[in-house]
């Protein structure tokens, strides 16, 4: 059993951070406090590390860690900061989530995102 699982998930909060409605540092702090390892918060140790790069938070884990759990925590954070009505958590790749605004009355959502 040599192989350590090394998981890396990225949470991209560029849009809300640029618009000044969300602070990435707060989000990182929230995750540090809330992420549970073996059922306990504040138990990250060296198994789970968080990295803040400008407006992205990168979660590295040496222990089994579900991406879905990160989505759950992100939603919890948005709810706590009353941003849940404006932002949604979208998987933009296999190992990353992005915080996007709801596109109201807009069917061409995918085309909208490709322009960027």
Automatic annotation (TrEMBL):
<keyword id="KW-0689">Ribosomal protein</keyword>
<protein>
    <recommendedName>
        <fullName>Large ribosomal subunit protein eL22</fullName>
    </recommendedName>
</protein>
<dbReference type="GO" id="GO:0005840">
    <property type="term" value="C:ribosome"/>
</dbReference>
<keyword id="KW-0687">Ribonucleoprotein</keyword>
<dbReference type="InterPro" id="IPR038526">
    <property type="entry name" value="Ribosomal_eL22_sf"/>
</dbReference>
<dbReference type="GO" id="GO:0003735">
    <property type="term" value="F:structural constituent of ribosome"/>
</dbReference>
<comment type="similarity">
    <text>Belongs to the eukaryotic ribosomal protein eL22 family.</text>
</comment>
<dbReference type="GO" id="GO:1990904">
    <property type="term" value="C:ribonucleoprotein complex"/>
</dbReference>
<dbReference type="GO" id="GO:0005737">
    <property type="term" value="C:cytoplasm"/>
</dbReference>
<dbReference type="GO" id="GO:0002181">
    <property type="term" value="P:cytoplasmic translation"/>
</dbReference>
<dbReference type="InterPro" id="IPR002671">
    <property type="entry name" value="Ribosomal_eL22"/>
</dbReference>
<dbReference type="Pfam" id="PF01776">
    <property type="entry name" value="Ribosomal_L22e"/>
</dbReference>
<dbReference type="GO" id="GO:0003723">
    <property type="term" value="F:RNA binding"/>
</dbReference>
């Amino acid at each position: 059993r040599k192989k350590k699982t090394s998981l890396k998930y990225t949470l991209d909060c560029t849009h809300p951070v640029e618009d000044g409605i969300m602070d990435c540092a707060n989000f990182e702090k929230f995750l540090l406090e809330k992420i549970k390892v073996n059922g306990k918060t504040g138990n990250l140790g060296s198994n789970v590390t968080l990295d803040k790069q400008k407006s992205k938070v990168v979660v590295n884990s040496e222990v089994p860690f579900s991406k879905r759990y990160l989505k759950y925590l992100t939603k919890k954070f948005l709810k706590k900061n009353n941003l849940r009505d404006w932002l949604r958590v979208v998987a933009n790749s296999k190992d990353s989530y992005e915080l996007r605004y709801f596109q109201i009355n807009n069917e061409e959502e995918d085309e909208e995102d490709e322009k960027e």
